[in-house]
Amino acid sequence: MTKVTEDVYFIEGQDEYIPDSHVYVVGKPSSQDLSLVDVGLVGKGDYKTQSLLKMGIDLSAIKRIIMTHTHLDHIGCLAEILQQIPGAELWVHNLEAEPLERGDERTVYGMDMFRDMCQMQYGLKPGDFTFRVHRKLQGGESLSIGDMVWEVIHIPGHSTGGIALYYRPKRILIPGDVVYADYAIGRFDLYGANASELKNSLVRLAELEVDILLPGHNRIVENLPAGYIRETASQWGPYLA
Ligand SMILES: [Zn+2]
Ligand SMILES: [Zn+2]
């Protein structure tokens, strides 16, 4: 785990056959009001909590888990994490929160073939991804958490209820799987994905001034060139029409 800024830490995903999402820890350490953004793949709960402990973070300071979206590589180890941090709330965009509460796992697995493969590989059963969501986000909120204010932006296209978190004072963007380093974007062929919505979401993110890009996978960028997201959106535009 590494420190990105005084109030944002990064736990790198440990990819296997299936990728494991990065986890970001946000909040001023002195606040004792920390949030995890995403948790990662099935089986990675211990790795993630051990990483927190190694950084001297008290697990009881983790008050909530905010999901950028609910694909398996981001939410897979949620039950493992909640066993170790039982007091943590779960915050998810409404469009993915409602299915999650009903046990509708189509977004989690993205496609039937992948569901069958993962259920076999990890011994998962139908209904394993049913969770109570404490706060349903809509997009447009300013979250006062950990002595910081993070803006929520709804960015559908990779999944229906995908969100980005933006910290304006330090121009930090956590966009989930919508945009990565190296002009890459998230896939748009899974359940609930939509190419033209993804295009609109990229255009929306391009309006923000971003210096630090903290995506769900691959490398993070601490000196993002101006116009990077706009350039990414225009390179991909023809494929998202
Ligand atoms: Zn995803
Ligand atoms: Zn992902």
Main β-sheet description: 7 strands, mixed
Distance between the termini: 38 Å
Q: Report Rg.
A: 17 Å
**CATH domain fold name:** Metallo-beta-lactamase, Chain A
- The residue-averaged pLDDT reads 97
**Roughly what percent helix?**
25-40%
Low-confidence stretches: none
Cofactors, ions, other ligands = zinc ion
Strand order of the largest sheet: 1-2-3-4-5-6-7
Structural class assignment: alpha/beta
Question: What would you say this structure looks like, in words?
Answer:
The protein is of the alpha/beta class and 241 residues long. It has a single domain (2-236), classed as Metallo-beta-lactamase, Chain A, CATH 3.60.15. It has helices spanning 45-54, 72-75, 78-84, 94-102, 106-109, 112-122, 195-206, 228-236, and strands spanning 2-5, 8-11, 23-26, 34-37, 62-66, 89-93, 135-137, 142-145, 148-154, 163-167, 172-174, 212-213. The strands form 2 sheets. Strands 1-2-3-4-5-6-7 form a 7-stranded mixed sheet. Strands 8-9-10-11-12 form a 5-stranded mixed sheet, with no helix packed on it. Helix 1 (45-54) packs across helix 3 (78-84) and helix 7 (195-206) packs antiparallel against helix 8 (228-236). The radius of gyration is 17 Å and the shape is globular. The model has no long low-confidence stretch (mean pLDDT 97). The structure holds zinc ion (2 copies).
